[in-house]
Amino acid sequence: MAAISRFMETHFRHFNARETLDAAKAWNDLLGKGGKMFLSMAGAMSTCELGISLAEMIRKDKVHAISCTAANLEEDLFNLFNHNEYKMVPEYRDLSPEAEKELYEGGFNRVTDTCIPEGIMRQVQHRISKLWVDAAETGQSKFPYEYMYALLDQSDIAEFFQIPREHSWVLAAKEKGLPIFTPGFEDSTLGNIFCAEVMQGHVKSHDAVRHGTEQMELLAKWYTEQARTDTPVGFFQIGGGIAADFSICVVPMLIQDLRIEDTPFWAYFAQIGDSTTSYGSYSGAVPNEKITWGKLDVDTPRFMINSDASLVAPLIFGYVLGW
Length: 323
Hints:
This protein is an alpha/beta fold.
């Protein structure tokens, strides 16, 4: 047994630690039965460089489709192209409003202890804008991740990489041909830029980027394709929000709205989050609540890990990978 797995088996015996280990073991059990894992990702996981372990999970066929905020999609590439320009602020808890303003005026946007340069992706921004323009001119409509894949397919793009290519989960997903669902694309830097390009007349139409309901249709087709081959699909959730609720709802949509009543429920569910159970919060809802919405079944393995995903997710990934 490798170091991480041995450490967890020895020390993770109770409370959140036990739940973490059980979730990792059940992930392996699902894959051992020929199942697949769907991962949803909120928060700033790409900025915390979760890609270092997540990319390996994708390469080793431990993750088979992803729903994430558009910010996580783009921030993995921001890190790939601009990592050396990032600024670390370890003392972020002590910053005054004046110090925050100084960061802003210096061209930095802070995410906890990591400041992303305002000029992110400047080396390649004109390239992705050209992809939007060309698509609009020719009447094409593509999903956000398809533009990212097209960008990464350009022959000379690797010269802009500032981190090892093995640390980019989007690049790994492209190489494995994974679909990436990004509901709420407009809630991202590139979504803002795209809207501005349309308003300025540089991009002919908003239709160059495919909309949220089209993403739901794509996800429904992906899920039913797995069901058609009797492939159980698990759901691993980092945080909450639109990335998670959008995607987990595909099952009740298929059953209740499309009336495909033999649609299987999600075959596994685990969530890492720091939200406490409260009134009406999706992120803080216990997994059992999802049974009432037709997302999970009574016997679905369910795990709720109340912890910091930047700490726990790499450990679970390491265990699943046999590290």
